[in-house]
């Protein structure tokens, strides 16, 4: 029996990972799935995390809990983003180690890479330049997460791995009008405009930035794929001080083209205009996904198909976190 703790199981990614593992358990795999809500266990509380890890002693930890948000939230609450994410990572990774956990997977983000860097971005672009200012505090915390895992591996011989997702979306996303990422924000805004017969929808910034979008089910599958690679394969495809693995689709789209796609899916037929007072952020951040592809994994869900599915979920869901 393998006991797996999924931190952040009520979030978009943690929820998708939990669903996959639950399905495997129902199919007969010997798994014990351990979860705690934020209210039951605040991961920024060191003593609470220590007590939990010591009491439960999981075999494997999946760290999908984090303070997460789009460009506006990152820019408006930088202290929350750096403090909470550093605390969560330090507590979960250190207390997992102290409780004897040998295997751990943590999720970072594509924003760890410098803002002006060769595209597509390879794993070895880490720490080669200046970060994008709109999310620098969050990115610094995510880089610390990678370095925590590498340091425990080097000093203590643990097997702690990191995946770096591109921009994610799908069922369970946060559809808050200001604090969410672009795709859920646009789904909600275009849906409401179509429903209310509005003539115009405004998108933030110039519409020119390019973004790469990965469906959360693909992300959950990739997370478990990396976690379950045998150690020799993982080590042959990474380096001790460059141990993270990019996860993405390898293709991107402009925000304006994305807006047109969401308009089509939601049935909005009016005008799309821009609000140049809002930040563009990084102009391009396309992942080089060859490390993962060489190990045998690639994304499956197409963007249009994924948006249609997410839109159906959005219309049915009563828990939109907004
Ligand atoms: N969404 C995206 O586009 C991307 C996400 N990622 C990374 O993927 C991971 C998962 O993100 P995603 O699923 O989208 O985020 P969500 O916001 O959907 O989920 C995060 C979860 O973490 C929980 N959480 C946050 N703070 C605490 C805390 N102090 N104690 C306990 N639980 C806490 C949240 O609970 P509650 O809501 O109750 O606070 C929530 O359930 C994160 O590491 C994120 O940085 C990386 C790239 C892109
Ligand atoms: C995943 C990644 O997410 C964040 O980075 P980001 O990619 O810049 O995030 P975003 O999804 O919020 O925006 C993408 C683009 O889209 C534009 N845009 C248009 N209209 C809306 C809109 O209505 N909402 C939002 N949020 N953006 C909009 C917006 O101006 C920007 O040009 C990081 O902070 C960090 O958290 C991180 O790692």
Layout of SSEs?
Blueprint: E1 2-7, H1 12-26, E2 31-34, H2 46-56, E3 60-63, H3 71-76, H4 78-98, E4 103-107, H5 136-156, E5 159-165, E6 167-169, H6 182-196, E7 200-204, E8 210-211, E9 213-215, H7 216-228, H8 231-237, E10 244-247, E11 253-254, H9 255-266, E12 271-275, H10 290-294, H11 303-316
Parallel strand pairs: 1-2, 1-3, 3-4, 4-5, 5-10, 6-9, 7-12
Antiparallel strand pairs: 8-11
Residues 69-72, 74, 109, 111, 134-135, 138, 167, 180-182, 185-186, 203-205, 209, 211, 255, 278-281 line the site of the ligand C[C@H]1O[C@H](OP(=O)(O)OP(=O)(O)OC[C@H]2O[C@@H](n3cnc4c(=O)[nH]c(N)nc43)[C@H](O)[C@@H]2O)[C@@H](O)[C@@H](O)C1=O.
Protein name: GDP-L-fucose synthase
EC number: 1.1.1.271
Pathway: Nucleotide-sugar biosynthesis; GDP-L-fucose biosynthesis via de novo pathway; GDP-L-fucose from GDP-alpha-D-mannose: step 2/2
The strands making up the biggest β-sheet line up spatially as 2-1-3-4-5-10
Going by helix content, strand content and strand pairing, the class is alpha/beta
The helix fraction, in percent, is 40-55%
Q: Identify every distinct bound molecule in the structure, by name, code or SMILES.
A: NADPH dihydro-nicotinamide-adenine-dinucleotide phosphate, ligand F7E
- Low-confidence region ranges: none
The topology string of helices and strands comes to EHEHEHHEHEEHEEEHHEEHEHH
| Number of contiguous helices | 11
The fold-level CATH name is: Rossmann fold
Q: What is the CA–CA distance across the termini? A: 38 Å
CATH superfamily: NAD(P)-binding Rossmann-like Domain
Tell me, briefly, the overall form: globular
Output mean pLDDT: 97
**Could you tell me the radius of gyration in angstroms?**
19 Å
Number of strands: 12
Main sheet makeup = 6 strands, parallel
CATH hierarchy class name: Alpha Beta
Strand fraction equals 15-25%
CATH architecture: 3-Layer(aba) Sandwich
Please tell me the total number of domains. 1
Pathway: Nucleotide-sugar biosynthesis; GDP-L-fucose biosynthesis via de novo pathway; GDP-L-fucose from GDP-alpha-D-mannose: step 2/2
Keywords: Isomerase, Multifunctional enzyme, NADP, Oxidoreductase
Site (Important for catalytic activity): 109, 111
Protein name: GDP-L-fucose synthase
């Amino acid at each position: 029996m393998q006991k797996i703790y999924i931190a952040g199981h009520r979030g978009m990614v943690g929820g998708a990972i939990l669903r996959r593992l639950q399905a495997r358990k129902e199919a007969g795999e010997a798994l014990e799935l351990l979860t705690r809500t934020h209210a039951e266990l605040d991961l920024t509380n060191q003593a609470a995390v220590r007590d939990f890890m010591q009491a439960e002693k999981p075999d494997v930890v999946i760290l999908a809990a984090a303070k997460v948000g789009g460009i506006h939230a990152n820019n408006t609450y930088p202290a929350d983003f750096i403090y909470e994410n550093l605390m969560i990572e330090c507590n979960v990774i250190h207390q997992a180690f102290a409780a004897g956990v040998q295997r751990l997977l943590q999720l970072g983000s594509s924003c760890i890479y410098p803002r002006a860097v060769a595209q597509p971005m390879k794993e070895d672009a880490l720490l080669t330049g200046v970060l994008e200012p709109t999310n620098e505090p969050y990115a610094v915390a995510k880089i610390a997460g990678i370095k925590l895992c590498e340091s425990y591996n080097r000093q203590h011989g643990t097997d702690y791995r990191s995946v770096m997702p591109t921009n994610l979306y799908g069922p369970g996303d946060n559809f808050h009008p200001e604090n969410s990422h672009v795709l859920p924000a646009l789904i909600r805004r275009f849906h409401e405009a179509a429903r209310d017969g509005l003539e115009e929808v405004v998108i933030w910034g110039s519409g020119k930035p390019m973004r790469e979008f990965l469906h959360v089910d693909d992300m959950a599958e990739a997370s478990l794929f990396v976690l379950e690679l045998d150690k020799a394969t993982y080590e042959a495809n990474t380096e001790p001080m460059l141990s993270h693995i990019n996860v993405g689709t390898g293709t991107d789209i402009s925000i304006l083209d994305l807006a047109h796609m969401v308009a089509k899916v939601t049935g909005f037929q009016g005008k799309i205009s821009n609000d140049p007072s809002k930040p563009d952020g990084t102009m391009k951040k396309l992942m080089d996904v060859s490390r993962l592809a060489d190990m045998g994994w690639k994304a499956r869900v197409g963007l249009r198909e994924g948006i249609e599915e997410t839109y159906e979920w959005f219309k049915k869901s009563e828990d939109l976190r907004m």
